[in-house]
Amino acid sequence: MSKRNPTYDFKWCPGCGDFGVKVAIEQALARRAVENQESVEKTVIVAGIGCSGNLVHLQEGPQPFGLHGIHGRALPIAYGVKAPRPDLNVLVVGGDGDMLSIGAEHIGPQARRNLNVTLVVMDNGIYGLTKGQASPTTNVDVVTSTTRYGKLDDKLNPLMAYLGLGVGYIVSELSSRVKPLGEAIKTAMDYPGFSIIHVQSPCTTYNDTYALLKGDEKKGIEPLAYPIPDSHDVTNLNAAMDLVKGERIPIGLIYRREGDSVASDQRLTDAKIRTKVEQKSVDALLREMVI
Amino acid sequence: MSSKNLVVRFAGEGGQGVVGGADLMASAAATGGYHVLTFSTFPSQIKGGPAWGQARVSSEPILTPGDWLDVLVAQNQYAYDTNLPDLREGGIVVYNSEEFEVAGNTRAYGIAADKMAREAGNPLASTIILIGAVAQMASIDIEAIEAFIVKRWTRGRASDKQIIDGNIAALRMGAEEGRKSGLTVTPLDAPPTHSEPRVMIRGFEAACLGAIAAGLDTFIGYPISPATTMLTYMEQNLVGLDKFVGQASSEIESIASLVGAGFAGRKVMTSTAGPGLSLMGEGLGLAWMAEIPLVVCDVQRGGPATGLPTKTEQSDLFAAINPGHGDMSVPVIAPGNPEEAFWAAGHAVNWAERYQGPVILLSEASIAERAQDIAIPDASKVLIEHRLVSDGKMGNRRYAGEGVTPFPVPGGPGAYVANGSEHDEEGDTTHLPDVHVTMTDRRFAKLKVLEDGTFEAERTSASIALLPWGGSKGAALAAWNELIAEGVDIGWYYTMFLNPLPPALLEALQAKRLVLVPELNYLGQFASRLRSMGVNAQAITQYTGLPFKEADLKSAIRERMGALAAK
Fold first, then answer.
1. What is the mean pLDDT of chain A?
2. pLDDT band for position B93 (50/70/90)?
């Protein structure tokens, strides 16, 4: 259920990382609405399928438009929303199954289009909604209902994949850091191009990684997640690749491509203005075919 | 004696200009005032493989490419051997004597057109040499073709005069060859006079223009034969600040982005063919479920999987109506020729807006690629319908109530969740049995607003009726005309609106003893569907990748009627 709609019959499990992401998005949208002096109705959240996709129904406060589509296709749906309607703010949410397995083929094209669209990936390293199958980001050797011998396939490094596919703005975050996450989402939405916020959002039922991410000083367990040092040059692609290539998960702004300063969806408008191409009437187009 | 028709086939292999030859022949004849219609068939490759292009020229309006050839232009031995059976008695063969020799055929004449063109310093003009020869043999006015050449190659360039002079010289060379051959076919009637301007148009152009006329503003597609022409036409012609045309990276992206754009309030369309339609199944289900207006133009080709990418077939009807899983019934409009494609596309855009859901414009390779002269369509007669837009009074309850309800457009009031999962009035997911019943009923009830389709009905008193669909209309009408002239009592029914069928048409068909449905597929898909609706329908099928011949259809109809009478 949600505050807005008590009959909505979906629930996240207690402690689910997605709660933090939801609140962070609400904060980001509220702040942007104030700063840009526009209603939240100018924003569209496109959701994939899975636990993450239900976020769109759970948004509290002023309501953005939502599109809860089909598994894996949230990015091309967002392309269709944004390209012909650049006046809208478009935020995409999805999980690791949605974005890194069935829908992974769409990240490259979206990066090349470089429209002003922000993708928030809620990575819990498991298929949660279908009750615990291995995903591309499930650790090797983990036994799940589809990996009885332990996961044999390699684990995907999503941050490296984004860099390789040419995504111009990449942030790595934790669902438990709600405030910085909200700020990161807001900043990413302000960035004039395609941006990805990759969030470690643990599944408390099938793959609880909170302890691993945080570590345990007493037991001498080093936290998996660590803050990116201030010395990191976010505009340096090689430095970004070095940063993400290890086992540990750097938290913060990974990469921001230099030179992306004009809203990319503006390029089409600029090209049209430059070439002065105008729509001919159908009658005029037909007249050109007169024998 | 003179003839109403001239059918010329240019046969050879891909890359030899056989399709271009037929097109040029048709354009020239149309400029001279004749009615024309082209058909081509070629393999799915850039060069090589058997290919031919056919032009039918007539003093009367044309329904089909023509069963029999008056002139066969054969570029190689294989083209000669395989196409000769289609030559009419008294027909002529013009063959490429540089490539091969024909012995023992007094109606064949060799022309080394490529060599002549090379020697004249105009190697691109070999097709024009052949056209000159054919025109001479068919007594077509050479001066009219010269006028066409002047018009065609007057492009405001410095080289215009040189090209025009070279091509006219080539045409005269060809005409001289035609004279030397001593061969003629029955001279063509003089061209008719026309009271209104005519356009030479291809099916894909007509479909694009009809959609634009109805207010289409967004087109996103992915290249696939034989539907790519629509994507490229839109990229060139759907332009301006308020328009968007994009190339997606797959058909899955095409349909997903169309859902996004339709949701965002745009009038959207894509073009694809069978394999793409298959990939779009889930996305079309999303559009049906979330009630998003969009149009998919499926230009049918042959077979499942890659099948016959460049051939024509009518085998996607089932897939068009039920493109995905679950209960849905996607509206389908199938034009029968390029002229109908213009109006059908406009209807498709309007239907999508009116019922707020996906519509399939079901075209075919032979319609999309056919060039035909038609009276210029009056674009001002295309109605422009807009979806009912929410003024916010419904709040976020977009899916409340029965039938079509106001559509909230992002940026405006009424924020809701457009949802592909079963949902309540606000679009929030629910799996409650009564909600699924209510919402399923709501989605199907919306189809009621599309029951305004028109249909043709002739000789309605006959107990047996002919009911073609799509591109089989032309051959079926030609066959029906002949049967009526021969005193056969058979009714004629036809509609572009295949789903939902116009209710009065369905009622009329249900009252028939037998309804014969010519269709280019193995399963008899439309006939099967009609039987499920209580019509005693029988399919007359063909699945060669080629259109029906008039004569074949006529004898098949007679055979079925005879079998019924013998019962």
1. 94
2. very high
ipTM: 0.97
Return the residue in B292, B428, B432, B438 with the most chain A beta carbons within 10 A, the one to mutate for interface testing: B428
Distance (Å, whole) CA B479 – CA B28 = 28
Residue B397: closest CA among chain A residues belongs to which residue?
Answer: A5
Going by the DSSP 8-state scheme, the letter that residue B443 receives in this structure is H
Nearest CA in chain B to A44: B410
pLDDT computed for residue B59 by the predictor:
96
B416 in contact with chain A, both atoms CB, cutoff 8 A: yes
Query: Can you spell out the DSSP letters for B202-234?
Result: EHHHHHHHHHHHTT--EEEE---TTTHHHHHHH
pLDDT in tens, B194-227: 999 999 999 999 999 999 999 999 999 999 999 9
Q: Residue B451 domain-assigned?
A: no
Q: Quick one: B43 and B131 in the same domain?
A: yes
Please give the average per-residue pLDDT across A67-84, as a whole number: 97
How many CA within 13 A on the CB side of residue A176? 13
CB contact under 8 Å between A109 and B379, yes or no, is no
Tokens coding B301: 């080709």
Q: How confident is the model over B488-542, as pLDDT tens digits?
A: 999 999 999 999 999 999 999 999 999 999 999 999 999 999 999 999 999 999 9
Query: What's the gap in Å between the CA of B269 and the closest CA on chain A?
Result: 11
Looking at the structure of chain B, the number of domains it has is 3
Q: Closest-CA residue in chain B for A46?
A: B260
pLDDT average, residue stretch B85-90? 95
Alpha-carbon distances of A12 from A17, A195, B420, B424, rounded to whole Å = 9, 26, 20, 19
Q: Are the Cβ atoms of A67 and B201 closer than 8 angstroms? A: no
Cβ of A67 within 8 Å of Cβ of B417? The answer is yes
- Nearest residue on chain A to B33, alpha-carbon basis: A291
pLDDT confidence of residue A261: 67
**Is CATH 3.20.20.140 the classification given to domain A18-287?**
no
Q: Residues B279, B234: one domain?
A: yes
pLDDT at B487: 97
Contacts of B201 in chain A (CB under 8 A): 286, 289
A60 min Cα distance to partner chain B (Å): 13
Domain boundary among B361, B381, B401: B381
Q: Do B40 and B158 fall within a single domain? A: yes
Q: Nearest Cα to A65, choosing from A99, A84, A92?
A: A92
Q: Is A81's CB within 8 Å of B261's CB?
A: yes
Q: Please report, for the domain that includes residue B287, its CATH number.
A: 3.40.50.970
Chain B residues near residue A76 by CB distance under 8 angstroms = 248, 252-254, 256-257, 260
Which stretches within B408-472 are classed as H helix?
433-445
The domain boundary, picked from B381, B400, B415, lies at B381
Q: What is the token pair recorded at A153?
A: 């396939």
Given a cut of 90, is residue B446 above it in pLDDT? yes
